[in-house]
């Protein structure tokens, strides 16, 4: 009786979230070196010319073998192919379809590229893509996940390899939400594809054994996708999809390619165009699992640095529904 009385207001408040906090999402805006490219909202019109392949649902994809795990549900080719350069900074603004903040805080963000080969990317069939991994961000070193920053309104970031060969590429940036992944098959995949044309005169290409297919690259039993221990203290995340491609870790020609790992992007990017920073520091121990270490002291002042147009716009937007982890799991497990 007492418990019920205490729980009632809580549950009522929680249930009132449901119509608004459809707790999934999509990439609303791609930013390349400060230029924004807006996407179209799932289930909305396709009126905005965009390099972002429009998903038809913000809902997660379940199952590593899902045929839509390449570029998301629906996701026909987009109309635009937009310019980038080796070393360009890419940012993705993840939202729910009602444009509130991304709702999850557990799991990695991973970025892949695939050459569109002899065709332009607006003609390229993502089912034939051979992907290579360029970036992955996971735990934050404080018992949480970098993904929480996205929930709190930050954009997700990665940089293109400094030595990336020119040409058209499909970018596959994904969030994997693992709040339910204590059960096998319950990892939530949110892939998003964008079409870019890389200029410059880099020479970096992936090796054959680094190329992946989606579906194919992941298995539901991967330790990064089925994570029974994820909420236990000391959990060490193992990213799915193998290591980051050597053309990235070789530092864009600044060293001879002996390194096998890099730090998560959130710790290794200079945040100002006037800053100079050394190439990624090899750690020599498998994949990075958190971003608490840094090769760049500038990072300590990261939060002070300007976020160009994002900051202002996002402060105007509706605040996130801060559904707790437990409540998120409860609601996911029942209603969504
Ligand atoms: C994060 O990285 C730091 C430095 O590399 C390390 O000391 C710490 O144990 C790591 N934490 C987790 C949770 O992986
Ligand atoms: C992405 O970079 C911006 C600064 O440009 C920063 O504010 C934001 O926190 C970064 N996002 C993540 C997930 O690290
Ligand atoms: C091509 O490479 C040269 C150095 O090899 C560099 O000076 C030049 O800026 C590069 N051009 C572009 C467009 O990046
Ligand atoms: C790469 O550099 C390392 C350390 O500087 C050196 O030991 C190694 O022989 C070099 N490898 C090649 C292929 O040049
Ligand atoms: C961070 O910024 C403060 C001033 O805002 C400066 O005194 C300090 O040296 C900076 N630290 C780093 C690591 O750049
Ligand atoms: Cu969700």
What structural keywords apply?
single chain; 336 residues; alpha+beta; Coagulation Factor XIII, Chain A, domain 1; four-stranded antiparallel beta sheet; 9 strands; 14% helix; disordered C terminus; binds 2-acetamido-2-deoxy-beta-D-glucopyranose; binds copper (II) ion; cellulose degradation
CATH class: Mainly Beta
Number of helices: 6
> Under the CATH scheme, which architecture would be assigned?
Distorted Sandwich
Q: What count of domains describes the coordinates?
A: 1
Termini Cα gap: 28 Å
Order of helices and strands: HEEEEEEHEEEHHHH
Going by helix content, strand content and strand pairing, the class is alpha+beta
Report the bound ligands by name, code or SMILES: 2-acetamido-2-deoxy-beta-D-glucopyranose, copper (II) ion
| Overall mean pLDDT | 78
- Strand fraction: 15-25%
Low-confidence stretches: 11-21, 252-336
Query: Total number of β-strand segments?
Result: 9
Strand order of the largest sheet: 3-9-8-5-6
Please tell me what the overall shape is. globular
Strand count, sense and barrel status of the largest sheet are: 5 strands, mixed
The share of residues in helices is: 10-25%
